[in-house]
Amino acid sequence: MGLILSLGGNQIELLGGLAPIPAADVGAGWAIHLLLSVLFGLAFATVISLRPIQNVVNTFREYLLAGIVFGTVLGLVAGGLIFPVAMTRAGVGAFPLPYLPVPGLAGELFAALLFAIGHLVYGLVLGAVFAAVNGIAPEMIRRRVPASDQ
């Protein structure tokens, strides 16, 4: 997701605004983004491991769906709360951001689209990795005949 934010709209720099000494800086943005990714990944693992959720989420597809839901909620929280704080602290009070490749409303929509896609991809990967780590494989892989049995 960081690559999507970095290469698509240069938004990763704004996360530097969450640093103790706020700055619109690529290095600080990446460090904060990776730290937040780990923390949110741990939050996903904690939530998805709760017994009431484990009673409902059993298949690889359900883990993917749970990851997508988590990524969507995370995107809404990050876009509605965390990102505005980072923008303010980085000294960028309003759109259009000087970092976006396209000015005006098109730039704002482009930024929102990248942000949404990035969080959906993050959730999808999170769900897939969590399922795989816990020994849950996609149906088409479970049905495959091992090479040793051919």
Name its key features.
150 residues, 66% helix, mainly alpha, single chain
Itemize the secondary structure elements and their pairings.
Layout lengths: L1 H8 L16 H23 L2 H4 L5 H30 L14 H30 L5 H4 L8
Supply the number of structural domains: 1
Q: Give the uncertain stretches in residue-range form.
A: none
Overall body shape = elongated
Radius of gyration, taken over Cα atoms and rounded to an integer in Å: 18 Å
Largest sheet: none
Transmembrane segments: 30-51, 63-89, 109-133
Keywords: Membrane, Transmembrane, Transmembrane helix
Explain what this protein looks like in three dimensions.
By secondary structure, the chain is mainly α. It has one domain (2-138). The chain is built from six helices and no strands. The chain is elongated. It starts with a helix and ends in an 8-residue tail after the last helix. 27% of the residues are buried. The mean pLDDT is 78.
